[in-house]
């Protein structure tokens, strides 16, 4: 391309100065008339009429004046090649972003060349001079068209590359907020894009802004929300639901507007958009596997009709497809308002972070073995903000900052607690991305090397509910920490992403069974406690200590101990405590669990499950089976509630049936009856307690 431009040097500079000087006055004076004639001609074309129809009168007249000046430049004797290339690229960009197609440009230049020839002949310009001017003008027009076409291709290619980059980078994003920000980061530099935002409706149908680009779009959001409760709504009956966002959500299809200021449906915010140079918009619904919308990605442009162009329509569809393929792996939680998101980020930056400490105790002795440090934000009203509100909106850099603050506070907590006789560990949650981000490693090692905390005093909990990255850095990092003496725990085991294989392949010292197995509804106690029983046995076989979370009453604590858990954590033991409240709690807390003869219905169910497991193991040794049945004849005697409802009789039926073997029909029938009895007793006890 550049070599062909060099060949055109002959139509610039001194070589053509004389020819263009003679014709400049004639053709220059006709530029205004030609521009007017040209646009009148364009209005006869459907495609061009659509483009020009998006402009208001002021913009239309400005376009004509710019065209007139550009034509005058093309016949300027002083025009240099480099100058022409620069101007042509700028005009090519404008034409590409406003939708003026290459064929329209070619028609326009052909029309202009013909008009120039007619003017030269009509005014008696000698043939030789006229031919020279027209030859050089045609060369300039051809170059101009070539450069503009190249601009078209470059802009289209940049949009295609953005989609490919987004698709390639989504798998490395660790949080949903990271994914949103990376999408926006890739889109906002594109020529023609003023900015972008991601939004999702709450339970009231009000769209909450989950991520927004800097610049005019952020100013636009701030401007509208300063005076209005909402920016968008899902209902068509609401004025803020009549624009592209509401339509995209309801119709599950991409929606756009060519000119915000001319759309009566956008009266709520078109004034703010116009003031900030936002002219057109498109809303892309990201759908789940059932074709239901999850989020809306909104793009804005300073160009009218930008999202109606053929290449942007292709781009919008490709972008929708690539995001849908890559973003479904993330969990979607309750939307957080734009104002709250800003508040949480501000509080974090200002380090308004307070760690509370929840005790974890040995279920055999009741001794305090560990304190889990749980982050809270101190709001401007003095209240503590729970992590389930702010963690979903934090990106990786926010989580790094939070971890750093947590490490500092944990080190100070150890110093305070050691003075009060504490000999256990402080536990911190390490985000999965911390396993592949060297900055997390540096924070941990610098804290240890400074002497603020000893490795044996630190426990790092890694969530099993999020995908743990596979990498050599991860393996080396965990091995190094383990060798130092840092205690490693796999948190929330069984909550979803799982990988029981991680328990054996990574150097964990402890696994924490997710509280969802014990908290809340216990209408199916055998299923819930069965998970704990099997996970505890598996973890012990791999050499791990087992902690059960979510122990909210003594029965659950007793059951966890009976089923083999080593440690327990939950509200029955203690809610998260302020640091200075821990010593007093430690002095007064005590438990006494009888694993052989539990004192609660839940504990008896757990004891029976262990008994049944042993029964199956003894089926092939009759002499041991008989002795086993004699020694276990009194289990459940400590529970008065069971005795009152005929427990002794139904237990005896079970023991008699067990003599026939755990696989016998008679035992299976007695077992079903016994388990139903225990569940009914749990229900009765729950009703009596309520």
List the helices and strands and how they pair.
Blueprint (H helix, E strand, L loop, with lengths): L1 H6 L6 H16 L1 H12 L3 H8 L3 H18 L6 H18 L3 H21 L4 H43 L6 H12 L7 E7 L5 E6 L3 H12 L16 H8 L3 E3 L12 H6 L4 E8 L5 E9 L8 H18 L10 H12 L3 E10 L5 E11 L5 E2 L1 H4 L5 H23 L6 E6 L7 H12 L8 E6 L8 H13 L2 E7 L6 H6 L4 E4 L11 H17 L3 E4 L5 H9 L4 E2 L13 H7 L12 H17 L4 H10 L8 H5 L2 H12 L6 H25 L1
Parallel strand pairs: 7-9, 9-10, 10-11, 11-12, 12-13, 13-14
Antiparallel strand pairs: 1-2, 1-5, 3-4, 4-5, 6-7, 6-14, 7-8
Q: Which tags fit this structure?
A:
single chain; 690 residues; alpha/beta; Globin-like; Beta-Lactamase; TIM Barrel; 4 domains; 8-stranded mixed beta barrel; 5-stranded antiparallel beta sheet; 27 helices; 14 strands; elongated
């Amino acid at each position: 391309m550049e070599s062909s431009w060099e060949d055109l040097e002959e139509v610039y500079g001194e070589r053509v100065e004389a020819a263009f000087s003679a014709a400049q006055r004639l053709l220059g004076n006709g530029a205004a008339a030609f521009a007017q004639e040209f646009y009148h001609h364009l209005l006869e074309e459907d495609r061009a009429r659509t483009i020009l129809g998006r402009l208001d009168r002021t913009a239309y007249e400005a376009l004509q004046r710019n065209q007139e000046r550009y034509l005058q430049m093309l016949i300027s004797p002083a025009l240099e090649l480099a100058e022409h290339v620069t101007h042509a690229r700028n005009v090519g960009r404008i034409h590409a972003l406003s939708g003026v197609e290459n064929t329209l440009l070619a028609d326009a230049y052909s029309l202009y060349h013909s008009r120039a020839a007619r003017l030269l002949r009509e005014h008696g310009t000698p043939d030789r001079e006229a031919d020279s001017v027209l030859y050089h003008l045609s060369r300039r027009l051809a170059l101009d068209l070539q450069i503009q076409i190249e601009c078209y291709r470059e802009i289209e290619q940049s949009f295609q590359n953005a989609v490919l980059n987004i698709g390639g980078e989504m798998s490395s994003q660790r949080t949903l907020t990271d994914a949103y920000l990376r999408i926006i980061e890739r889109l906002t530099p594109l020529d023609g894009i003023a900015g972008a935002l991601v939004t999702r409706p709450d339970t009231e149908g009000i769209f909450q802004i989950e991520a927004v680009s800097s610049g005019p779009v952020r100013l636009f959001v701030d401007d509208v929300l300063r005076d209005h409760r909402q920016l968008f709504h899902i209902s068509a009956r609401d004025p803020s639901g009549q624009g592209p966002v509401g339509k995209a959500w309801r119709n599950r299809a991409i929606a756009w507007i060519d000119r915000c200021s001319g759309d009566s449906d956008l009266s709520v915010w078109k004034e703010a958009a116009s003031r900030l140079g936002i002219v057109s918009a498109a809303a892309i619904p990201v759908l789940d596997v059932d074709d239901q919308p999850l989020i809306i990605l909104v793009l804005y442009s300073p160009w009218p009709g930008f999202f109606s162009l053929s290449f942007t329509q292709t781009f919008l569809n490709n972008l929708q497809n690539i995001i849908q393929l890559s973003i479904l792996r993330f969990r979607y939680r309750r939307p957080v308002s734009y104002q709250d998101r800003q508040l949480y980020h501000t509080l974090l930056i200002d380090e308004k972070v307070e760690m509370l400490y929840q005790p974890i105790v040995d279920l055999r002795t009741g001794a305090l073995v560990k304190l889990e440090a749980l982050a809270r934000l101190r709001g401007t009203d003095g209240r503590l903000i729970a992590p389930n509100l702010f963690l979903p909106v934090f990106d990786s850099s926010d989580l790094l900052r939070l971890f750093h603050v947590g490490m500092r506070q944990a080190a100070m907590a150890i110093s305070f607690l050691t003075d009060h006789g504490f000999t256990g560990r402080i536990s911190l949650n390490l985000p999965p991305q911390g396993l592949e981000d060297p900055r997390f490693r540096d924070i941990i090692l610098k804290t240890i090397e400074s002497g603020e905390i000893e490795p044996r005093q630190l426990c790092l909990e890694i969530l099993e509910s999020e995908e743990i990255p596979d990498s050599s850095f991860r393996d080396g990092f965990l091995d190094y920490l383990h060798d130092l003496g840092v205690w490693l725990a796999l948190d929330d085991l069984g909550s979803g992403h799982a990988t029981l294989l991680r328990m054996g392949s990574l150097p964990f010292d402890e696994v924490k069974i997710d509280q969802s197995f014990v908290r809340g509804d216990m209408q199916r106690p055998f299923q819930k406690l069965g998970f704990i029983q099997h996970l505890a046995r598996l973890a012990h076989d791999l050499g791990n200590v087992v902690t059960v979370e979510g122990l909210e009453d003594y029965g659950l604590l007793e059951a966890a101990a009976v089923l083999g858990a080593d440690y327990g954590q939950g509200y029955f033991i203690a809610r998260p405590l302020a640091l200075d409240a821990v010593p007093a709690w430690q002095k007064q807390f005590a438990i006494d669990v009888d694993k052989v003869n539990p004192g609660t219905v839940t504990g008896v169910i757990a004891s029976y499950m262990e008994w049944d497991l042993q029964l199956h193991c003894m089926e092939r040794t009759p002499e041991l089976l008989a002795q086993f049945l004699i020694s276990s004849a009194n289990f459940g005697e400590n529970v008065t509630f069971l005795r009152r409802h005929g427990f002794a009789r139904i237990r005896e039926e079970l023991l008699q049936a067990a003599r026939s073997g755990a696989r016998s029909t008679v035992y299976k029938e007695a077992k079903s009856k016994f388990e139903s009895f225990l569940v009914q007793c749990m229900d009765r006890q729950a009703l009596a307690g309520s």
